Amino acid sequence: MKLSNIFLAGALALGTGGAWADCAFENTVPLKSLTAGFEAWKAATSAMAECGNFEAELDQEFRTKQPAAFAAEPSLYHIGGVSNGTFNPLYNAGTIRPLDDLVAKHGQHLEPNQLIKINGQTWAIAMMVNAQHLMFRKDILADLGIDPPTSYDEVLAAAEAIREAGVVDYPLGGTYMTGWNLGNEFINNYLGFGGEFFDENNHPSINNEHGMATLELMAALSENMDPEFLQSDSTYVQQQFQQGKIAMANLWASRAGNVVDPNESQVVGLVEMDSAPVGPVRPHAALWWDGIVIAKNITDEEADAAFRVAMEGIDTEMVMANNAAAIWLIDGYEPGPLSAGAAATAANGAVPYPASPALGLMHNALGTGLSDFLTGAKDAAATLIDIEAAYVTAAKEAGLIN
Amino acid sequence: MKFRVFATFVGPSLLLMFIFIAAPLAAVFWQSFHVTQPVYTTVVAETCTPGFINQICTTESRIQLELDEDGIPIRTTEFVGLQTYRSVLELDRFWAAVKDFSWSKLMVIDFWKALRFTLTFTLVTLPLVIGVGLLIALAVNSAAKTVRGQIIFVSLLPFIITPVIGALSIRWLFVGDGILTAFLEWVIERDIAMLGHAWTIELLMLFYRVWHVAPFAFVVFYAGLQTVNNDTVESAVIDGANRIERLRYVVIPHLMPLIVFVSLIHLMDAYRVFEEIVGFRSQGYVISLQWLTYDFLTPDETGNRAVSSASASAMLTMVGIVIILVPLLRKTWRDHRAGLN
Q: Cis link prior to A67 (omega < 30° from 0)?
């Protein structure tokens, strides 16, 4: 995922042009931001740059830099882009500042939904939501007389029919690349079965019937994918869609725009966005948000300027110029067919990604521990035991459990 | 030379070696025996995050770091002895697998899996790099003088390419329906997934490393070939030695010190195999010791990183390199002693 995303970010940086009006004020304080590099951040930081004296760093590896950079005195960046997970290390280390005063001063237009609050204090301003949801080729399903699948049983049945019809190379695509992506797939599926990751003392609790069901499901799905699925990240799945090689995938909403982009896709108008397949308890997907935080170790004057610039970056004008780039939470966003999948996933009861230091470790253990199961080197029971053991080792070293 | 003069010349480089080599090494050694942890507390907090239309607020227990009065997380460091080494080596599972005589059980333990690949990689590429490098050197040496420059330039190209980029470009030839996969599929008329099996990825990685490093061996050997004593070669010809015999009894003994030198460098480099894992995205199938260290050191989604495990893993890698170099170093030492007498 990592390298190709960096290249993708570079390509986007060259590709997207600004088409919105200039900044409402002229910024005189030198400011820097560190965010992820996908299209929505490109749009937001380009709009911030119009205020002047602003330098944006877009880096898909931001999560490895951010905690140390924000802990520096003074902080190396003023504005940070975070999501559910990456918000936690900054908040926990106390390197970001509460934003209530700044919201009162410059952020009256913000929707209440955008304010990320902990115990009533605002710590981040969300700009968009993201979720993995089902995308499928409606032409192929209609030709074969299959109704849009709502559960993974139906997805597997449809995959079987598509395979027999032989209309695409592989019925399914999946973000199963070893590491973060693979761990995230387990978390999505396990949430759908209603599983709990930990007991009250942070000890792991995935070795149960939900864990087994998740592994069985992932193995069954992977049999319908390109055999190179352990190398397949979001960009790869997106390209498989664009080139007409797959018929269905549970892919990120933030990729929907690319999947049907006439400049790069051969399947424009043929892909429908639908809810993530629903499991026994809730959809097999987690809800994510992306937003901005302001560093604590900077002067109040800098923080004030940074917040104003950030607000210019995530304003209505930017959203109107980049409507398809993301599912924006910002006033002025027109939900279209591309956002239908994420909306349906949320409506079906998907929960936010349950970010915590413990889940970070578990996510890692899952990401590296599952590939041995999917290649057939280990059986399901041994896989769950080993992942729990790997988590316990890591959690002991991190000081989460004794 | 007076000691003062000697010290003035050597001092700066000793100082730099201390700062950039000895001190970090000592720090890693120290870290591998200690664990630094923040203090976690669990608090009940109401967290509000964006839903699709309405905000989702939940009251739940939250794991937080305890901060001191300056707002900096409190950290404690304690001596843990060999505990981190034990958890990296996973000795319990190792012995269980050994007792069962089960290779497949051993090969699902990260460290041993990584060690297996690292050793295979190092020991398989070594003779290939030396052999291919020598072959190119001999070929260039017997090529016409007018084209030598061009041939040398072209042969050196793979070595100039940045390792990760080289690995990526080979991967792109084979990934999905890459050019070469499509070609192979057309030739043998069946679907292949080069990056879908451990052994095919491993083959690609071995091929890549030989392709990348052979030019280095070639340059060194080619330089050595220029100093072969022509009188000896001519007398060998007169004595009726054929090409192979001349190579075996004249050229190779002459190049031996260079072969040992290239082997030393290659063993050290190959044991630290890392770029191939990243470039070929092989971590789902095969991993190396160096990649294991990197994986420990990479922060996860919520910022945790296993510094102690990474240090222990790095120390183990260093110990491995030393062990693998011992035979060659002993040979060099013996030759050196023999030369002194």
A: no
